[in-house]
Amino acid sequence: MGSKGDGTTLDPLPADFFLFPRQNEGFQIPYFLTSEEEAAKVRPPPVVKTLQQRLDELSEKQRIVLSEFKVTVQGTEWYDEGMHDDWALIRYLVACDFKAKKSFEMLRNTTKWWKEKDVANWVCEKCLNNPNRHMMQFVGWDLEHRPVCFMSMRWGPDRSDPIPHCVSAFNHLLQLMPVGVEKWVFVTDFETYSHMKDSNLRVGTTVIKTIQNHFPERLGMIILVNAPSAFSFLWKLSSFAVDEKTKQKVVFWYTKSTPNVRNEFPKVFPPVLSSYLCDAYDRSKACELPASPVWYPKADNAVDGETQCVYRLSASSEQKSR
Fold first, then answer.
1. Mean pLDDT for the stretch of residues 7-33
2. Which of 3, 165, 172, 212 is the most exposed place for a label (fewest CB within 10 A)?
3. DSSP 3-state assignment of 118?
4. Per-residue DSSP letters for 248-303?
């Protein structure tokens, strides 16, 4: 049985969608993740792209580099057939612009980190004890079949030592990728962001460096929604630690100004996920806990995801302006 952080008991949930047996009380579970039957309607096909199709995307020169790189890696004492398949080797080469020596160093360091620290088995002990400490929840897949993680500052107030939770969330997303999908998407709600509380450069750069160094070519997109100007300043300060590829994957969207989520969400997410995220932002803005454990589209305006997204955000803005 699943449960919420407030003790509400839920029917059994598909285990592979949830990191913890108890869910954050600010998280409203999308109905399409509440059962295998519903999930089957949104779950990607098991294979989106074959390895041969991925290899065909490489140039002849890149395939030669890959072949030589593979021989080199297989000859090391730390080679692991499960970790170092062709998909992984390609990612490390792409991350380093097919510079084999640099790719080798990155792969060796990550393998050492992964094995010595037993990263595959990391869990967030804080959230096991209290699921309301952090809020990083898988909420579905985008239009490219990439798993999507929703993060909320309001519902996840703990900012201390975020790496164990982040890494366990990253590993969870990896398990939700069909063959041929290699990246994830993060959507962050900045409601309640405090420059005094949340502007620790070291914490932010540590998370970014962990992604860059140990999860290369896994980040597809980070959508920062309603980030205040204070954070924009912080982002500029920390950008020295972020490589150019990562910078290009970060976008700033808003619920009132532009680029506006009403226009942008439907370009990235299926209609029902766009609707879910819009409702989640409405609740966060109003500081409202879910009225029920499971989210369903509003029947009166659920024509399609884009229409509902526009309606919900417009209605919210009108109410606040009165």
1. 87
2. 3
3. coil
4. TTEEEEBSSSSSBHHHHHHHHS-HHHHHHHHHHHHHHHHT---SSSEE---TTT-S
Six-digit token string for 87: 């998909």
The DSSP code for 186 is E
- Segment 170-176 shows an average pLDDT of 97
Sequence letter at residue 232: S
pLDDT digits over 236-290, tens only?
A: 766 666 778 888 899 999 988 999 998 999 999 999 999 999 999 999 999 999 9
Rounded mean pLDDT, 153-157: 93
pTM metric for this prediction:
0.88
Domain residue limits, the chain: 15-43+120-295, 51-117
Give CA–CA dist 190/226, Å, rounded.
6
Residue range 205-222: mean pLDDT, rounded: 91
CA atoms within 13 A on the CB side of 82: 3
b/e map 199-231, b = 16+ CB within 10 Å: beeebbbeebebbbebbbbbbbbbbbbbbeeeb
Whether residue 228 is preceded by a cis peptide bond, meaning omega within 30 degrees of 0, is no
Fold held by 15-43+120-295? Phosphatidylinositol Transfer Protein Sec14p (3.40.525)
Helical residues (DSSP H) of 150-243, grouped into ranges? 163-175, 195-198, 201-214, 229-238
Residue 289 tokens read as 């806990």
